[in-house]
Amino acid sequence: MKPFLLLATRAEDVPADEEYELFLKFTGLSRSDLIRVRMEAGPLGEVDLDELSGIFVGGGPFNASDPESKKSDVQRRVEAEFQGLLDEVIARDFPFFGACYGIGTVGVHQGALIDGTHREPISVIEVTRTAEGRRDPLLAGVPDVFPAFVGHKEAITVLPPSATLLAAGERCPVQMFRVGSNVYATQFHPECDVEGISTRIRVYAGHGYFAPHELDLTLEAVRRLPVEHTGSILRAFAERYAR
């Protein structure tokens, strides 16, 4: 089997390594079948899509809506590399799954409006499949309404015409979409479990996701509903596109 590629951007080793383990867990892939590249550590280099089954993108610290003057050199490089890669991915309708930060990369590439209007605190929310979502193979077997982990400072306010909405939330309307037949993105985190998101809460305390005195409340918020179905979306992607 040709491997999948996981593109990561977290600079902190503990959540970065745990994210990789969670992708392995929920996709069912082995380490040899899921190659990780930490883009924040250095240039991405050439990516030969013909040698891959598909691409995953995890969450990260960058916000597409940040003013250019506030973006670091690393953020600018990573964004440019994603835009170049997505030129080919979109043109070929190549299997791609972006979670959280990934929805911003695809959204920007396709001309979505992204801002802080629909930001969500770290928590568990209920996500609802759209009519198109009920027909999509990645969401087969997922309930019409399902809990999911979220936590983001920006989101898509206006979906581009090229995108098909697959799932929505009450506070953040765009929770999952598809471009073409094979390019997917979610605002929620299908790669997380309670332990994984709790690690991130502790590591990213002080990064503006919640006030310092809200640490315990935030840890409680991700336990208010059991999240049982989102990981199956990643497994469905891996099984569908393995080649």
Short description:
This is Glutamine amidotransferase. It contains 7 helices and 11 strands.
Describe this structure in words.
This is Glutamine amidotransferase. It holds the Pfam family GATase. Keywords: Glutamine amidotransferase. It comes from Microbacterium fluvii. With 243 residues, the chain is an alpha/beta fold. It has one domain (4-241): Rossmann fold (3-Layer(aba) Sandwich). It is 32% helix and 24% strand. It has helices at residues 13-27, 73-92, 101-110, 131-135, 194-203, 215-221, 231-241, and strands at 4-8, 34-38, 54-57, 96-99, 113-115, 120-129, 145-152, 155-158, 163-169, 176-179, 183-186. Helix 1 (13-27) packs antiparallel against helix 5 (194-203) and helix 2 (73-92) packs across helix 3. The protein starts with a strand and ends with a helix. The mean pLDDT is 96.
Helix content range: 25-40%
User: What would CATH call the architecture?
Assistant: 3-Layer(aba) Sandwich
Order of helices and strands: EHEEHEHEEHEEEEEHHH
- Top CATH class: Alpha Beta
Structural class: alpha/beta
Give the total of domains.
Answer: 1
What's the β-strand tally?
Answer: 11
Mean pLDDT: 96
Quaternary status = single chain
Discrete helix count? 7
CATH homologous superfamily title:
Class I glutamine amidotransferase (GATase) domain
Percentage of β-strand residues? 15-25%
What characterizes the major β-sheet? Answer: 9 strands, mixed
Strand order of the largest sheet: 2-1-3-4-11-10-9-6-7
Question: Could you give the distance between the termini?
Answer: 5 Å
| Estimated radius of gyration | 16 Å
InterPro entries: ChyE-like, Class_I_gatase-like, GATASE
Protein name: Glutamine amidotransferase
Pfam family, one: GATase
Domain Glutamine amidotransferase: 49-192
